[in-house]
Amino acid sequence: ALYNAAGAVVPADTAGQGVATYRLTPGEAYAYVTTAGEYYHATAGFTAADGLTVEAAAPRQEDWLASLQAANGITAQKLQDDPYLPEPAFSPGVHVYRFPVSDCNSAFGLWVTTAAEDITVTATYTRLSTGRQESRSVTPGKATGASLGGLLEVTGYANQAVVRAEQVDNGVTYYQEYILAVSRNLHAYDLDLTVEGETVVLDGGGG
Asked: What separation in angstroms does the CA of 194 have from each of 10, 75, 199, 204, 207?
């Protein structure tokens, strides 16, 4: 796809066999995005000129996250004692995960390691309380997790974060996405039980 400086898609005049032609305004800025396998992308910008030909880079499809972990907090102790376990278990080639999280929790810490040193990682999500998009840098290999503040609240509302691993090479940004869908495990906070009109007291004693 091709986008103008305002972020609008520019339609092709002709397209076929991997080649497309566009009617562009000389001197204006544009950017292309190529995609492979849904989660792998490449993008670069250029300035239009008469007769210009741009060879769009193909996405790199090596998987760049070597590990991904989450917990109810950002300390190493929280990661050990109170982790959020992904479904399925993490594998570099799997790009969609579900994290069941108690509706009592509001913290979400994230840890990653990468397959190469020149990979940067960010997480984007919508803050539940405001509906505003948030972005957090996630430092690979850091002992303290990145806090995705506002991703969750003490409610039953689910949310989603998109983790983006990115590599810049020769003016082209190559990136891939991992989708973290956070579901909620619901609990009853108040329960009244009556039997034949009589209130039964629940004391948790098992009697």
From this structure: 65, 44, 4, 16, 16
pLDDT in the model for residue 196: 74
Pair of tokens at residue 131: 């509906």
119 phi, psi to nearest 5 deg? -95, 130
Tens-digit pLDDT profile for residues 144-196: 999 999 999 999 899 999 999 999 999 999 999 999 999 998 776 666 667 87
Q: Are the beta carbons of 151 and 161 closer than 8 angstroms?
A: yes
**CA angle at 176 for the pair 148 and 182, rounded to the nearest 5°:** 35
Closest C-alpha among 84, 51, 53, 87 to residue 69: 84
Global pTM value: 0.85
Distance CA 105, CA 187 (A): 11
Nearest to 100 by CA among 186, 185, 187: 185
Three-class secondary structure assignment of 52-80 = CCCCCCCCCCCCCEEEEEEECCCCHHHHH
| Residues belonging to the chain | 207
